[in-house]
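Incident log, structure service

09:12 report received: a user says their structure output differs between two submissions of the same chain.
09:20 pulled the input from the user's history:
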Amino acid sequence: CALPISRGTIEFDARQRAYGGHMRAGARGDLSIVPLRQGTRTVGLLVTTAPSLDIGALDAIAGVAAIAIERTQFLSDREAAELVKQKADLAATLLASLSHDLRTPLTAIKVAVENLGGELARDERRMQSSAASSEIDRLTRLFQDILDMARIDSAAIQVDRQWVTPADVVDAAMAHVRLTLVGRTVRVNADMDHEVDIDPRLVSVALSHVLENAAQYSPPAGEILVEARTDDAGLHIAVTDQGPGLDPSELDHLFERFYRGRSAQQGTFGTGMGLSITRGLLAAAGGRVWAENVPGAGARFSVVVPGSVRHVAALP
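09:34 re-ran on a clean worker, output below:
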């Protein structure tokens, strides 16, 4: 049955050491109902069957419970306010990060298009057209990054598992960042004899950000080594560069959204979304990524994605 509404004034009864509003209920009157008050507002009821407790003790217990409820509400409100602040900070950071990355390709496209409107030799027209096309690809990739970030935030990533070889995943990832890898020496050691059941799009896009990161932080003559294999646990990929390595104090922040290390802040590239997108896409696929320094080389980023494995030769 429904509990009665506790009524009464909030005057303090010094003799019973309690405020008003207490009630007795139950078929034999063995239930004590005590209001839980926050100031003058009742936020709940305490119902007890403890006959040995007097009204003053019950009121004290009710007061402690009311304080606990108030604290819980306060923490919930504070978390909500912090979430709103974080979203506002992220939006401001995104706009600040993208301002340069949008302005530069748009300016380059505008200049190239204006040049194409003049009288140019065939080779010069081809160069201007190629420059515009490259910057359009750059913009397309930037907007794709924003869409991927939005899907990660809204948990709207769909996983579509397919049988692919590690070599297929690496090839697709390199195609994503082909412009970034132009002029770079990339050595690939990828398994072509086994297939793994994963989402090739999610993993290849995640890997493409790692490759882009390696190209940005490696010296022009430095080699980038990509190793991809399978084992009983699934797919393993490692990307090792010959750059300056990672600052140990930044290892725990590399995959945070919009985080850019000190060396990146001194350059002109990157929005700080790439490695965060890598982590988010891999998490959706059930995988993970981590980074470490390699003695005698630079940095190594390792990717692991679980999935069933089969030998290619076993296919009908």
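09:41 both user submissions now match this output. Likely a transient worker issue. Closing.
09:42 reviewer note: The CA atoms of residues 30 and 51 lie 7 Å apart. DSSP finds six helices and 13 strands in the chain.
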